[in-house]
Amino acid sequence: MIGVGNEYRRDDGIGPALIAALEDRWLPDVKLLVSDGEPARLIDDWVGVPLVIVVDAVLCEPSTPGAFYRTDVPLHDHGHQDAPDLESHPHTAGSHSLGIPDALRLGQALDRVPQRLVVYAVEAADVAFGTELSAPVAAALPGLVHAVVRELTSLPQ
Amino acid sequence: MSHRARQLKVSSLARVEGEGALHVIVRDGDVERADLQIYEPPRFFEALLRGRSYTEPPDITARICGICPVAYQTSACTAIEDACGVPVGGAIRELRRLLYCGEWISSHALHIYLLHAPDFLGYPDAIALATDHRDLVERGLMLKKASNAILELVGGRAIHPINVRVGGFYAAPTRAQLDRLAEQLRPALDAAIATVHWVAGFDFPDLELDHELLAVHDPARYAIEGGTTLRRTAGASFAVDAFSNHVVEEHVQRSTALHASLDDGRYLTGPLARYTLNHERLSPLALGLAADAGLGDECRNPFRSIVVRAVETVYAVEEALRLIESYYPPVPSYVDVPARDGVGHGVSEAPRGLLYHRYGIGADGQVRSATIVPPTSQNQAAIEDDLRRTVSANLHLADEPLTRLCERTIRNYDPCISCSTHFLDLTVERK
């Protein structure tokens, strides 16, 4: 379970906030990671893992802050490496990083992908400097926790 | 809810540290201005720190940059220890240097292999490079992995290390742990050497910058985690605590950035400055490789910064192995640093350039004032100058190829910004 983001950039902290919320849960066999999204590290973190769930903030147009979107990313369809919902956009850019879609493409080029990858993209309202989530994103957190816990605990043993 | 019901236009993943935009004004065929809005100075953090305990800046400022948290932690610790009158040396200083070597290798390998090399080889990005030359990208990732092992062992984890504290470390690794780390690092030295040979063969456009260069200097070794003075190319060295007498940050109206100047002049920090000012402190191996790669007594071509980064990566791997070899665990793993009323200064060489911290601390242990001058705000004026020249010489190009060229120009400096990747909103106003 990888929470991508920066808790000093308000809603970008939703990934780390989710990880913090999961730390109190009994989730055997689940590794919780906070990540800055840097692709070399991401592909090291996820290579070969049976299921990886990545949670990250996105800015969208038009915007519905707090809404989140689940994508079960097709990993081995090399004819269509860019999953439609993770399409790399010229203006998609984390600082220093190439972004999650590019981490995925790099992982595919190097055969370093998880067995299954699910991405939750949470719509951010505000990614200015600050330590608190905006109200709609904070309100989305319990639903997000519920969704990922259900997914993590329904793994075949 | 089905995400497929809606087309998402993802305009940004949010780890931006500023907006990346370049605004060029061309009047009668000449570039009048090239304004780069790339970097948000850490004023939020400076404000956040005021009133906090003097023990908190290392952890809080580490969050300013995901790529160089160790630089922030180190400059913060040094400045606070200076304010409290407790210099930290010996085995703790050496352990800091080892951790910092991990950050240099990690940051340099990322920049060389995933960001910079594709520019020289005609690939749009590292993914295309990996498709054609998987072995090359694998080598870069292997270097990164070795550096992450240093960060995880000494820093507690690979991002935002948690083992660093004012006065030293919460826990020091054991001899046996470092021996295992050395096993992993030894093959990384070969990879680092191969990297120098590889990048030395790239084609480098002719360009020599005449800016002044500024770097931390340590008479005993290539300055990384600290030093005794600040050395410059056009003037006498000065003491760390005189930084603010020479470097002035000015607010520039067109952007939120602060532009720094050195005695009113444009200057550059980072690999070119370190190599030019301190190369004689490199190891014989690194110096030999630098000479083989065509680097002389100075390097003022920003395209060749990739060669300097490769040489520095060799040095950092060697240095890490040397530090491990001579390591003995500091007992205790930190020195007590009682709070006292005072002001302290700290500098270190972040992978992308000089990072300065200054803290004012009260007798009660509260941070009264915090000033952080990161490399990117120091380098901003030099980057803009380079962009102005690049745009002037290439005005015949359409906006799209001109934008790519500007991105490449910016990437030479490895700044703390999003446009290190593929992200520059170029506006050319032709009047």
UniProtKB/TrEMBL annotation, chain B:
The keyword Magnesium applies. Ni(2+) binds at C65, C68, C416. It comes from the Bacteria. Fe cation binds at C68, C419. Keywords: Iron, Magnesium, Metal-binding, Nickel, Oxidoreductase. InterPro entries: Ni-dep_hyd_lsu, Ni-dep_hyd_lsu_Ni_BS, NiFe-Hase_large. The keyword Transcription does not apply. Mg(2+) binds at E46, I372, H422. GO terms for molecular function: ferredoxin hydrogenase activity; nickel cation binding. Pfam families: NiFeSe_Hases (PF00374). Its cofactor is Ni(2+); Fe cation. This is Ni/Fe hydrogenase subunit alpha. It comes from Kribbella soli.
